[in-house]
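Milestone 3.1: sequence recovery, worked example.
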């Protein structure tokens, strides 16, 4: 076959192929998704060591990986009132040196195993997590136990972390969104355990001493206040043997551990605040609605996360209304943070200073509408799918599986709940969402915080609210419930 004949043949073949493809009848709409199915995670196996350490093992051999997490059952909520950020700083220092390894040696050792090692604190928990190939789990657990049990807390590492934290906070606190988030916690929770920033403030971080760090570690990092969760390609018998080897001689201190006790709710509909933090150099304004909501153990938890999903996310109502429909923000959303005690609900957006008052109206309107008008099934089902899809993705990785089981163990919930998550979400009805939003998210109990150039929006806000607190940025003190550097109450401006 000559070159010209070959070319004609190829062209003819391609034409026949294209004709065949184009002749197929295209499907007008994609097929309907199948019904969601509940996952079946292998039943966790657990035992408690003689020293009080609860050990939970999830056998899953679908990949040759193992993840292990030590969970201390307290986090930033146990920070002393004058030392916000202490728990987070303590957890961050765990990998910065122990009695037998310095920070470099810890990093090199875990890297040599092809693994990872992460530590940190959040509300209600401090964690240390490692992930490695199953063949390397024993030396990885050796390192994990070392950093949790024997941190050195050297002056050099403390000062290095202190300066890094202060520098990072100073940068973050130049942003209206961070200021609004920190101020919102103070407005909602005041001086109670959830009222301060988890990461602390520049002032509180500067005051933390080595003795404070050691004291917190001694009080809360103990086997009878800890849970070890191991999951992945490992037999339960082997996992328990390793737990005994590396944690079995972890001494339970005396006296008997006394769990941290929370106070009562701080914010409710009777003391709602509208706070403006005047930051004249702000190019944009951050707008927050914040109030108390529910705890993780609340029977309405699944109704709550479905209700929040209707508001949150790219295709959620807040973003649809504020960003997509009106172009007033690059993103708007909400969060329902159910903690050991009652946590916050927050709806927020960042916008131009001139449209801050309008965005306040829109946030309030959408939260209010959720509690007054039933959501349609056409809208509700995709919002449920967001939750179940995120849940399924978490379980794809063994680290996500271990994290989910650890979260249930932290709250003293049934570990089998992980197998019923999808069914619980799917069982929530439009009526459930309506009732939950109308009671737990009642907008009359929501505080309003706006951070930005006040001269651009204050007058409009004063038309909407009878009392508005205005705090100049130079007077802002995130370490006080009043949010002012002076001890006197914040100035309240009444609408004319």
């Amino acid at each position: 076959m000559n070159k010209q004949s070959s070319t004609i043949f190829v062209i003819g073949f391609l034409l026949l192929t294209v004709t065949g493809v184009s002749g197929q009848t295209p499907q007008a709409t994609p097929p309907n998704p199948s019904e969601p199915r509940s996952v079946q995670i292998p039943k966790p196996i657990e035992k408690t060591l003689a020293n009080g350490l609860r050990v939970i093992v999830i056998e899953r051999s679908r990949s040759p990986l193992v993840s292990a997490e030590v969970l201390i059952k307290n986090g930033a909520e146990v920070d002393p009132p004058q030392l916000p950020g202490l728990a987070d700083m303590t957890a961050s220092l765990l990998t910065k040196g122990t009695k037998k390894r310095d920070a470099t040696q810890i990093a090199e050792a875990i890297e040599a195993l092809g693994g990872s090692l992460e530590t940190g604190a959040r509300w209600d928990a401090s964690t240390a997590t490692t992930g490695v190939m199953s063949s390397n789990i024993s030396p990885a657990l050796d390192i994990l136990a070392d950093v949790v049990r024997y941190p050195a807390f050297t002056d050099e590492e403390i000062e290095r972390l202190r300066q890094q934290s202060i520098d990072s906070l100073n940068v973050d606190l130049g942003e209206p969104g961070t200021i609004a988030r920190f101020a919102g916690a103070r407005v909602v929770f005041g001086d109670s355990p959830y009222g301060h920033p988890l990461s602390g403030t520049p002032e509180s971080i500067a005051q933390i001493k080595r003795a404070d760090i050691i004291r917190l570690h001694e009080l809360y990092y103990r086997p009878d206040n800890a849970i070890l969760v191991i999951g992945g390609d490992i037999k339960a018998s082997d996992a328990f043997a390793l737990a005994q080897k590396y944690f079995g001689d972890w001494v339970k201190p005396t006296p008997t551990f006394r769990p941290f006790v929370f106070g009562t709710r701080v914010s409710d509909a009777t003391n709602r605040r509208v706070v403006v933090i005047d930051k004249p150099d702000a190019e944009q304004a951050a707008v927050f609605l914040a109030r108390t909501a529910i705890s993780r153990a609340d029977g309405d938890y699944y109704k709550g996360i479905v209700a929040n999903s209707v508001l949150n996310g790219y295709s959620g109502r807040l973003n649809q209304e504020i960003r997509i429909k009106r172009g007033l923000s690059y993103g708007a959303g909400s969060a329902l943070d159910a903690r050991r005690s009652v946590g916050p609900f927050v709806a927020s957006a960042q916008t131009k200073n001139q449209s801050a008052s309008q965005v306040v109206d829109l946030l309030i309107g959408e939260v209010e509408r959720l509690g007054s008008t039933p959501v349609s099934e056409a809208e509700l089902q995709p919002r449920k799918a967001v939750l179940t899809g995120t849940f399924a993705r978490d379980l794809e990785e063994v680290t996500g599986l271990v994290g989910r089981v650890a979260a249930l163990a932290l709250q003293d919930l049934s570990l089998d709940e992980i197998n019923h998550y999808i069914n619980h979400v799917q069982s929530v009805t439009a009526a459930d969402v309506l009732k939950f939003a109308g009671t737990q998210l009642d907008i009359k109990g929501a505080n309003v915080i706006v951070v930005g150039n006040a001269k651009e929006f204050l007058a409009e806000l004063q038309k909407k609210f009878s009392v508005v607190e205005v705090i100049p940025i130079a007077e802002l003190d995130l370490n006080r419930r009043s949010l002012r550097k002076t001890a006197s109450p914040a100035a309240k401006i009444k609408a004319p």
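Residues 3-22 form the longest helix (20 residues). The domain at 269-494 is CATH 3.30.830.10 (Cytochrome Bc1 Complex; Chain A, domain 1).
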